[in-house]
Design brief:
With 610 residues, the chain is α+β, with helices and mostly antiparallel strands. It contains 13 helices and 18 strands. The strands form four sheets. A six-stranded antiparallel β-barrel has the order 1-2-3-6-5-4. Helix 9 packs antiparallel against helix 10 (450-461), helix 10 (450-461) runs antiparallel to helix 11 (469-519) and helix 11 packs parallel to helix 13 (544-564).
């Protein structure tokens, strides 16, 4: 992937910023590693200094400097207030920042550097496993985002001897080519499955560190952020143009039908599209995105929320010369040091295979030269999204010439496939509406966009402007309209599916509790409440919220009646309806997991467990 990379003959004896952490008690047990930053700050993983079996950390630890003589005489360090970020259930966080009680005995400290995640980039680090307190060096190859969430990067040992061991956590990961610290080791995986032995580890990259630790972001980081501040938006606010957000997310995810080079348009007066672009790119930046785990409910590409870390570089080229754009690109890929060649030539020779977005291509000072420069990234194995403001410009025409032949035809074919997916989804929604019409109200309006969009696709196929740059703008806007319609149809499908399932679950809950009452001669104990709930569920279309409230009133009354005769058993404790599992059939008890905090009635059992 991309060009081969020459390695620097790094000097590990110069990395005196590496530190070893011990408990501050008489045992002086080695806990792990860390990185000395400026201002007497030490970065490590939260689990390194966590007291085993608790959620807390050691009040103080000893920080030693094994890279210098007499390194075993250390300094006391304590956690900086507000900078203890224990590992969450989704594996986000796991960071801690310490402050030394006195000046460190070394003259140099490390600075964390932002660097894109590049396949097979070689790195090195040192840990302090049991019995090797002087340290063990290891090299690894970066493989890409990995682990249980979006915050880690997978690193594979370069050789069998480089296998990660315990007490490597917190070790500074150094890029062999540049000598820069680009993260810290956090975890290892050593397992065997189907006869194959898997050994790899994970690092927390700089972008994740600065997201969690304010002091590090303010004082101890270098390198250009993937998304500059002027290019960002509030990531917690929904993108106003959902279709555009979905399209951007599909491209960032590298879906099979998306090209390495894509074109889109954000006109100056289209404020919704401009905000959507900024919002989506902010979410794609690991450093700025508030979303941290691929396991987050509702997190998928259809939601228009990209994976954090899926974007390497965003640059606004409006009003900038080719040289200025080249400098920004070079900073984003770590090529900004001194060199014998002009920066554009260095990029052409050594560009990293980045996923990059360039905005305002048609408003660059030298638009044609800038287009040529940007396409260099593609020739080096990268992916590129070009954002234009005008529907026709010399830069757009030049981009069209640089695209491979048949691009417009393949784009139109892709639109046709997405319209086909829309038509199929709309038909499924109509089928659900027919099933739900007699029991659920209100219903979402019936979707009806596919037919109109099919006509638009036919007109595009016959468009006399095919073969011109302006034709690309028409394709772009129609495709975004298709994505908007598909998003709305999928929302309707999810809503109807949930409401039908909920109705069935409520029926099972109602009938199951009534059957339990009847078994104990209490059929009339809550008769009026049962009749009201049954009327809502079976007497015609009803609002699910109203029916749920009626069922809950009946369930509470039924529990009270059973409790009074000592028959509550293991039904659980009264509470609000929680998340439901598998729906019970009408007239039968529900499945385990169905009732949430209300307790469960297991099918075929006398009582379920909460």
């Amino acid at each position: 992937m991309g060009a081969s990379i020459k390695e620097t003959n790094f000097r590990t004896d110069q990395e005196t910023w590496r530190v070893r952490l011990r408990t501050a008690d008489r045992r002086a047990q080695v806990l792990g590693a860390g990185v000395l930053l400026g201002d007497g700050l030490v970065l490590t993983c939260a689990h390194v200094i966590r007291i085993s079996g608790t959620d807390g950390h050691w009040p103080a630890v000893t920080v030693e400097f094994p890279g210098i003589g007499g390194g075993e005489s250390g300094l006391r360090a304590t956690v900086v207030p507000g900078h203890w970020v224990p590992r969450a259930d989704d594996h986000s966080g796991d960071l801690a920042l310490l402050r030394l009680d006195g000046p460190p005995p070394v003259a140099t400290h490390a600075t964390l550097h932002r660097l894109p995640t590049i396949w097979n980039r070689r790195v090195h680090f040192a840990g302090y496993p049991s019995g090797i307190t002087g340290g063990k060096w290891a090299e690894a190859l970066i493989k890409g985002p990995g682990g249980p969430g979006d915050e880690w990067v997978q690193i594979d040992p370069a050789t069998e001897a480089d296998t990660l061991m315990r007490r490597f956590s917190g070790a500074g990961v150094v890029d062999n080519r540049t000598g820069r610290v680009i993260g810290i080791v956090v975890s290892k995986l050593d397992s065997e499955r189907e006869g194959a032995h898997y050994r790899h580890g994970y690092m927390i990259p700089t972008g994740t560190v600065v997201k969690h630790l304010d002091l590090v972001r303010e004082r101890c980081v270098s390198g250009r952020p993937p998304v500059p501040a002027a290019f960002t938006a509030d990531p917690t606010a929904p993108a106003p143009d959902r279709g555009f957000a979905r399209w951007l997310t599909r491209w960032l995810a590298g879906e099979d039908d998306m090209a390495d080079v894509e074109i889109t348009f954000v006109r100056e007066e289209d404020h919704d599209a401009a905000l959507t672009l900024r919002t989506t790119l902010t979410l794609a930046d690991r450093e700025r995105s508030p979303r941290t785990s691929t396991a987050t409910p509702g997190r998928d590409r259809s939601s228009g929320v990209p994976r954090a870390g899926s974007l390497d570089l965003a640059v606004d080229v409006s009003g900038k010369t080719r040289a200025q754009v080249a400098q920004e690109i070079a900073e984003g890929m770590g090529l900004d040091g001194p060199g014998p060649q002009p920066m554009p030539a260095r990029i052409a020779a050594d560009a990293l295979p980045l996923t990059a977005v360039a905005r305002g291509v048609d408003e660059a000072v030298q638009p044609l030269e800038t287009v040529e420069l940007l396409h260099t990234l593609v020739r080096r194995g990268g992916r590129l999204l070009l954002v234009f403001r005008r529907l026709d410009s010399p830069a757009l025409r030049r981009t069209y010439e640089l695209l491979d032949q048949g691009r417009a035809e393949r784009w139109l074919d892709r639109i046709g496939r997405r319209i086909g997916a829309l038509a199929h989804t709309e038909e499924r929604v109509r089928d659900l509406r027919r099933r739900a019409a007699s029991i659920v109200s209100p219903l979402p309006p019936p979707p009806h966009y596919a037919q109109d969009l099919e006509l638009k696709a036919v007109r595009l196929e016959a468009d006399p402007g095919r073969g011109t740059a302006g034709y690309l703008a028409k394709l772009s806007y129609v495709e975004r309209t298709v994505e908007t319609a598909l998003s709305e149809a999928e929302d309707s499908h999810r809503l109807l599916t949930r409401r039908l399932a909920r109705h069935q679950e409520l029926r099972g809950l109602l009938d199951g509790h009534q059957a339990r009452l009847a078994d104990h001669g209490l059929a009339e104990a809550a008769a009026s409440l049962h009749h009201e709930a049954q009327r809502l569920l079976t007497g015609g279309p009803c609002d699910p919220a109203v029916a749920e409230a009626a069922v809950e009133r009946f369930v509470r009354a039924a529990r009270k009646a059973l409790d009074q005769v000592g028959q509550l058993g293991q039904l659980g404790h009264p509470g609000q309806l929680g998340q439901l599992g598998q729906p019970g059939q009408p007239g039968q008890p529900g499945q385990p997991g169905q009732l949430g905090q209300l307790g469960q009635l297991g099918q075929g059992e006398t009582e379920g467990k909460p």
